[in-house]
Amino acid sequence: MSTNNLSTPASGRFSLSAAALHILAMVLMLMDHLWATLLPAQDWLTCAGRLAFPIFAFMAVEGYFHTHSFRKYALRLALFAVLSEVPFDLMYGGTWFYPVHQNVIWTLLLGLLGIHLMETVRKKQKTWLYLLTALLVVLIGTVLGTLGMVDYYGTGVLTIFIFYFFRGRKWWCLAGQLLALYWVNVQLLGGLLYPVHIFGMEFEICQQGLALLALLPIWLYRGRQGYHSKPFQYACYAFYPVHMLILVLILQYLTR
Asked: Which residues form the signal peptide (predicted)?
């Protein structure tokens, strides 16, 4: 496992900043939610939306290692998780209270709490204790994510842990991300299969497997923060509940 900060990009090398990744993830999420509400016939929107969560999961882990106060970071996530629940319930359940599915910020928060526990133990420099803690955190986090019915369930929490355990730019970290995300998205989540015909050959592509394409912009991130300000930071948080609420209001207006 690598827990060192990602290196600053070399001069002249193209890279995506943290701000650019956040904006990209929000656009992809909006496309997915447009499919879920106003444009259900446009399957390409939800295919593109498969890339959003891995980017959010990756940036949440990076945020953990770059934040000056995990307590404030966690409290901020908890606040927006609560604020987002009603808009999320209205969008996915059509009602103010939809207890069988919780919004994605709870997924991120659960994963980050597990990472914080593992990092606290790791700093004690007792390898056996860290490995035991990591095993328990992964198992318990996956179970809690599934039982708590957070977005993407236990596999969502696993995705966050994947970016924690394989954090870095060494070849084995990148390979680990690819293989682990393939296992989570294709083998565990699965989903719709699309037939593809190329050069006379026919095969099927798993829709959820498109999430692996998120690794392309993720790998273009090399630690550069990009534009940052408090208003921008809170605008990124607020985008989640606000855009869901707007989509719900538009849908209700069109269907009344």
From this structure: none
Lowest mean pLDDT among 11-25, 108-122, 127-141, 231-245: 11-25
- As a whole number of angstroms, the distance between CA 154 and CA 30 comes to 23
Q: What is the pLDDT of residue 127?
A: 94
Alpha-carbon torsion angle 181, 185, 187, 193, nearest 10: -140
Name the H helices within 148-191.
Answer: 153-165, 171-182
Reduced to 3 states (helix: H, G, I; strand: E, B; else coil), residue 206 is: strand
Q: Which residue has the tokens 């948080």?
A: 237
Q: How far apart are CA 192 and CA 208, in angstroms?
A: 7
User: What number is the average pLDDT over the span 149-177?
Assistant: 97
Looking at residue 190, its pLDDT comes to 84
The pLDDT value recorded for residue 199 is 73
The pLDDT mean for the chain works out to: 93
Q: Which two tokens stand for residue 175?
A: 């390979």
Query: pTM for the whole thing?
Result: 0.92
Q: Whole-angstrom Cα distance, residue 110 to residue 105?
A: 9
**Tokens read off for 222:** 């090399």
Both tokens assigned to 238: 């607020």
CA separation for the pair 76, 27 (Å, rounded): 22
Residue of 219, 223, 118, 119 whose CA lies nearest to 170:
219
